[in-house]
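Long-time lurker. I teach an intro course on protein structure, and each term I like to show students one example going from raw sequence to a predicted 3D structure in token notation. This year I'd like something fresh instead of my usual example. Would anyone be willing to generate the tokens for the chain below so I can use it in lecture? Attribution to the forum is fine with me.
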Amino acid sequence: MTSEEKSRRPIPRLARELPSLDNGSIEVLPDGRMRVTYRLRTDVTWHDGQPFTAQDLVFTQRALGDRRLPSLDTTAGTRLMERSEAPDDWTFVLYYSQPYYEAGVLGVRLFLPVPRHIMEPVYEAFDAANDPQVWLNHRFWSDQFVSTGPFKLGEFVPGERVVFERYDAYFLGSPRLDRIIVRTFSDANTLLANLFSGEVQMVMDTTFSTELGLQLKERWESTGTGTVFIKSGNTWFVASQHKPDVQKEPANLEIPVRQALYMAFDRQALVDALLGGRPELLAWSVLPNDHVLYESTKDVLRRYPYDPDRSRAILREQGWTPGPDGVLRHASDGRRYQTSIWGTPGRGNEAAAFADYWRRIGLEVEEAEIPGARVRDDAYRATLPGWESSAAGSGDRIFNRLEPPRPGIINRTSYESPEAATLRNNYLRALTPGAQGTAVQAIADFWARELPLLVMYFIPDMPGVYKGVKALHDDWIGGYEGAQAYGTFSRNSHLWDLE
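-- Reply from a regular --
Happy to contribute to a lecture. Here you go:
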């Protein structure tokens, strides 16, 4: 599934129609499970010419459901899949252990199809050896990759470039471009210079830091040499470590203290300094304002404006008063309010800004950077004391942080609440827009009351195209308003062209 042009409405691609409750292809069974039937197109082929069938999807579900292998999907999507079957080559039936709200709009981010004729023998070898490297190291994932899209892999040079060539048998018609060259740059400023000169003519959504993306936008648009689009992307937040044996300052676990620390941030000033002052990126809601359910969460966090005097008053009520050096000390034992905030490489300015605001109200804050080699090491990051400055995925992916900690769930700071888990599951089970709105509103109310994470702002996605390149414009209506819901920014690459 993906989005149609100039709309967030989901449309089928590999399937002939969208599964839905109305046409009977989504069914909640008497035992509480859910069955979803995808009826596939019959004219889709893999890049090696083999037909794409429901058997490929059954194999994909088997591999995705194997907990011994890593998955691109960190949501409940694959975890709730119980099994699948193919009554015939063009019918894919998927069973879920419970109703699941995204089951009828599976896209490549949730369910990347894998060719059975290539990878089933590899999976069987992995299974026999019980060694994930057998699967992960296969050349399918590098220079022998095949898929069903409009461009096939032509050349793969690690660390330098990947060349994609037109696939004339693409089921939506032969692409308009002959090839797309994806280049790798180890230095962002070198890439920026290549974009200024026109040597590189397209940049995708998360390539740059916001600072460099805004530089490109200003240069291109002031000279008429290109367009950079902006939409809300990942949700940036500050999260306390919730494991008592790891958290060095117990006060960080107290709701009133989190409320005080939240109001110590001038988030508008942070957006002005870090995100070009774009008002739509400031998080007064737990969902960005381009999300289809935004109205159900709108302004729920406005109860926490910048108010350092109120912050100090709340902390005083919790027993924290300034010592002779201005650092807060607790009335019970005289301990100083000492904490730390951890940031990721390249985003130290944010962690430094957050720490500075907390120092202004009397906290003693250590700034620390997560080593680059450990950024993707969730087990390591789960041991960080104090606070973590980090990002969740875009849209409603911030709700994943309400799921109870367990293997495969990204909840590094181990926030856990039975009420939160129930509210999250109610949302997963909501199959209609009305039910989803009600479930999201309940989550937003809980969030504003409990502050499991301190949501700061939305990091912008900033894809851009050089003049003369006809691409990406179908994702935007009036600039910010045309945000895509399903698929990726390259979902219509068969229509890309040069003027």
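Some talking points for your students: The domain at 233-460 is CATH 3.10.105.10 (Dipeptide-binding Protein; domain 3). The longest helix spans residues 433-450.
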